[in-house]
Amino acid sequence: MKNVTDSFLSLGHWPFAGSFGFNTDILATNPINLSVVIGVLIFFGKGVLSDLLDNRKQRILNTIRNSEELRGGAIEQLEKARARLRKVETEADQFRLNGYSEIEREKRNLINSTYKTLEQLENYKNETIQFEQQRAINQVRQRVFQQALQGALGTLNNCLNNELHLRTISANIGMLGAMKEITD
């Protein structure tokens, strides 16, 4: 402790002018040296530090400006993308509605076509049934006529003798001749 107080006491003791040398007393020389160094740094470093700070400030401002421009461009692109999305959604809704209406129209057309086809099939069926009925009726008529004719021929053959048979044939030939003259 005595050395510390001695060093403060020796601050009052200055060597005579004209002598030059190193002062080894650290406590006495440190504040003076630091103040000189700080003064020199402030005097000469003020411009350099100011330039460094100005450059840094300009870079920060340029970065902010660029960021703002990029932000503006991003917002513009976002708005364009939203507009395209709205347009695509509108077109998709329109396609969906058109698709549904087209499906409904095709469904109605298919149903109508099926009904027409069913009506035609029903008509063909009815015509076929009528044709088959008429054919069956004609076949029955032919058989009845053939049986009646065979029965009549059988009866005539049994009842007729040769002379009556020849007169009937002559009368029929005469009727056919008369019919032929009428048609000519």
TrEMBL record:
Residues 71-98 form a coiled coil. It comes from the Eukaryota. Keywords: ATP synthesis, CF(0), Chloroplast, Coiled coil, Hydrogen ion transport, Ion transport, Membrane, Plastid, Transmembrane, Transmembrane helix, Transport. It holds the Pfam family ATP-synt_B. It is found in: Membrane. InterPro entries: ATP_synth_b/b'su_bac/chlpt (IPR002146). The keyword Transmembrane applies. The chain crosses the membrane at residues 32-49. GO terms for cellular component: proton-transporting ATP synthase complex. Belongs to the ATPase B chain family. F(1)F(0) ATP synthase produces ATP from ADP in the presence of a proton or sodium gradient. F-type ATPases consist of two structural domains, F(1) containing the extramembraneous catalytic core and F(0) containing the membrane proton channel, linked together by a central stalk and a peripheral stalk. During catalysis, ATP synthesis in the catalytic domain of F(1) is coupled via a rotary mechanism of the central stalk subunits to proton translocation. PANTHER family: ATP SYNTHASE SUBUNIT B, CHLOROPLASTIC (PTHR34264:SF3). This is ATP synthase CF0 B subunit.
